[in-house]
Design goal:
The protein is an alpha/beta fold. The chain is 22% helix and 26% strand. It is built from 5 helices and 19 strands. β18 and β19 form a beta hairpin. α2 runs antiparallel to α3. 27% of the residues are buried.
Length: 208
């Protein structure tokens, strides 16, 4: 296996021997972070064009950082608040209707525990997958190799070290499932929505 194949297979590899679009993504990230994003989205569009795939209605709020860009896939109706960091040595796949609070960090890169091997500047990379309809609280860290299921809420300050199943609220360091998301949750928030619509002259943006 060559270095790139080893990288995507989660084996130790030398990152200095893997070609990437590093200079191009560095320029695009700097341009976006320096932009007047609230009135000119051109820098954001140029940045997104360097991702592996991007759906519709994808919004990032600077500052943003990623290592490569072309290993990031994002679905539709995505929002990331300020300070999102993605170390995308391996693939990062994010579904649709995912909301990220400030200072979420997604890491695919990891290093050998053995100090002698680690000092040789070798590393590993494991993919991260986030499903549809996920809300991740601020200052959450998602570690290499983690999969977060669909319809999940991750509490702020969490450190996600293991997979999280569908349809749960999870939080903590390490992040653990606290409870399932229930029909009672759905009824409560639908009632709150109806009350909001009844008390205001707003228009429904999305239908359920």
């Amino acid at each position: 296996m060559n270095e790139k194949e080893r990288m995507f297979a989660g084996k130790i590899y030398n990152p200095c021997k893997v070609k990437s679009q590093w200079p191009k993504i560095r320029k695009a990230v700097k341009e976006f972070n320096d932009s007047e994003f609230w009135k000119d989205t051109s820098a954001l569009e140029r940045l997104k064009s360097l991702f592996r795939s991007v759906g519709e209605d994808v919004i990032l709020t600077p500052p943003f950082y990623c290592d490569h860009g072309d290993r990031i896939s994002i679905g539709n109706h995505f929002y990331a608040n300020t300070g999102l960091t993605i170390l995308d040595e391996n693939y990062v796949t994010i579904g649709s209707r995912v909301f990220l609070a400030p200072h979420v960090s997604i890491y695919t890169a990891t290093h050998p525990i053995d100090a002698e091997v680690r000092s040789m500047d070798l590393e590993c990379a494991k993919p991260v997958t986030i499903g549809d309809d996920v809300w991740i609280g601020g200052n959450t860290v998602i570690n290499p190799g983690v999969t977060i299921g669909n319809n999940v809420v991750i509490g702020s300050g969490s450190v996600v070290t293991k997979d999280i199943p569908d349809g749960v609220v999870a939080a903590g360091n390490p992040c653990k499932v606290l409870r399932k998301i229930t029909e009672e949750d759905s009824r409560y928030w639908k009632e709150q929505l109806q009350e909001y619509l009844n008390d205001s002259d707003c228009q429904v943006i999305r239908e359920f």
